[in-house]
Design goal:
Pfam families: UDG (PF03167). This is Type-4 uracil-DNA glycosylase. The chain is α/β, with parallel strands linked by helices. It has a domain of about 190 residues: 3-Layer(aba) Sandwich (Uracil-DNA Glycosylase, subunit E), CATH 3.40.470. It is about 35% helix and about 10% strand. The strands form two sheets. A six-stranded mixed β-sheet has the order 3-5-4-6-8-7, with helices on both faces. A two-stranded antiparallel sheet has the order 1-2.
Length: about 350
Amino acid sequence: MSPMDAAPRQAPPRINPLQRIWLRELGMERLWLRTPAAAPHAKMAVAAPAPVSDGAPNAAAHSPIVAPAQVDGRRPGPAIAPASEASPAAAPDAAVASTDVSTAADTAAVAPAKPAGLATGRASAIPASILNRTGPPPRPAPKVEVQDEAPPPIPVAEAVKDANLEQLAAQVVACEACGLCKGRRHAVVGQGAQPTRWLVVGEAPGEQEDRQGQPFVGRSGQLLDAMLAAVGMSREQDVFITNVIKCRPPGNRNPKPEEIAACSPYLMRQIALLKPERILVLGRFAAQTLLGTDATIGNLRGRVHHLKADEGVQIPVVVSYHPAYLLRSPSEKARAWQDLKLAAREL
């Protein structure tokens, strides 16, 4: 039995917490703390202190480093032995390992760990709720732009009070004062001679008027032209023709009171600009709107009414049947002829 085999078994040396830390980093903590019984034949070598040059302290003198030794073909394990028993050939390598590990341990003891990603001196300014957050930071709430409410539309009567005929026509085309604008093809402003002797006022455009953008076209228009020609008038030289409602009601239905109220300021402005000698009103709705009454057409026709225009001028007004009604009731044409003669007479 060799002297090495006969040597008494020794308990592993005690290590301080700092040595345990760097042993764990090197992956040697478990090997180091194994009992001598787990490696009975291990040959131990003690790291020799590295030579001191130029007065530099010997790091291995404070922390002896163990070099792993081969144990009968098994995994190497750490061992420690007195310095007198160490092999001289192994001393330089052991000294180098001792110096590196000791330096790392000293550095870890001096410099405290910093949170990852933080700059020096700025950690105290960051709230703990941000330091402890996991995952991406929350997105900022989108800015909600408060849009100013659109100003209320100017009433039609206010918008047209200073308009000329050209401006008035543009306002009619762009008008959205009532729902009729949504279903129209064309707004029908009016058409005829200027200066104007007669102003002929109907109720609302029909299907053909909506298609062409002109008042009284189609069969009703042809009948009206014939009636005017019978008293020596024409829309090209004497008459301006328009309607109370400038957009066609769906299905040629009767105009609603709110539609008449929204559109009648255009008619009143046309009268003020055209200054006709007399007005021929065709149909019940047109007569009631222009004269401000709810009387039937039978009670309104056959006599002369007067409309007070700007500057106190009284314009004679004659009421008659609508040409569309005369097409459905030809027997009423005789009464319509009487109304035309009344309008043509010197008033």
